[in-house]
Amino acid sequence: MNILMALSQLEVTGAEVYGVTLADELINRGNKVMIVSDTLTKKCKAEYIKLEFNKRGLGNRINQVKTLLKIIRENDIQVVHAHSRASSWSSAIACKIAGIPLVTSTHGRQPVHLSRKVFKAFGDLTIPVCENIQTHLVNDLGVKPNKSVVLRNPIDTSLYSFEPKEDKKDKKIISIIGRLSGPKGDVAYS
After folding, report:
1. What is the CA radius of gyration of the chain?
2. Positive or negative CA dihedral for 139, 141, 146, 152?
3. Cα distance between residue 88 and residue 37, in whole Å
4. Looking at domain 2-160, which CATH architecture does it have?
5. Which of 36, 7, 13 is nearest to 185 (CA)?
6. What is the CB-side half-sphere exposure of residue 175 using CA atoms within 13 A?
7. Residue 60 to residue 187: CA distance in whole angstroms
8. What residue spans define the domains of the chain?
């Protein structure tokens, strides 16, 4: 299968790690995967094409849709998987024109406003990363329950050592789980 992953971020994000992990596994299973994104900081087997989804003016959106259509047609893309609001908006239009399915992953709570309820851009199927996000999508944004399936972030735990280190016994370790860059949510404080 020929798959196009659409991401948008200016720094490494959980969505990027999720997308790259998924892309590498799909490639390992014999699929062809391409990634379009503002940036790509994680190593990946997929071909990367820069596409600035964070430029959100109407002219930029039209150009994004045109670029996506060109990539879809030139590479015989059979499905697009978008991992952000910005990329899913342009991908939804491109997929509709191209007549191919769109899958989205929803990595966090979404803003609730009229335009998001009218033009959902969640595709044929959305994959929230936890049950709380799935409930939010259904209750607050009107996503049909049968159009979403929870799939947690794919992490290969065999790559990490979870053994306590004796020399760190007296030192405090602070882990920040989440996003420190805005404007999506609250900033973490310690």
Report:
1. 18
2. negative
3. 12
4. 3-Layer(aba) Sandwich (3.40)
5. 13
6. 1
7. 29
8. 2-160
Q: Which residue's structure tokens are 């994680």?
A: 42
Amino acid identity of residue 124, one-letter, is D
Helix (H) or strand (E) run with residue 95 in it = helix 85-98
0.85 exceeded by the pTM?
Answer: no
Residues 6 or more apart whose Cβ sits within 8 Å of residue 117:
141, 142
* 36: nearest Cα among 101, 84, 1, 107: 84
Please provide residue 137's backbone torsions phi and psi, each rounded to the nearest 5 degrees.
-65, -45
Query: 62, 63, 90: which is closest to 4 by C-alpha?
Result: 90
Maximum C-alpha span of the chain: 59
Residue 103 in contact with residue 36, Cβ under 8 Å? no
d(CA 134, CA 86): 19
Residue (of 106, 116, 120) closest to 150 by Cα position: 106
**Taken in order 89, 1, 39, 51, is the CA torsion positive or negative?**
negative
Tens place of pLDDT for every residue, the chain, 190 residues? 999 999 988 877 778 888 899 999 999 999 999 999 999 999 999 999 999 998 888 999 999 999 999 999 999 999 999 998 889 999 999 999 999 999 999 888 887 877 766 777 889 999 998 899 999 999 998 899 999 999 887 666 777 776 766 666 677 777 666 555 555 544 444 4
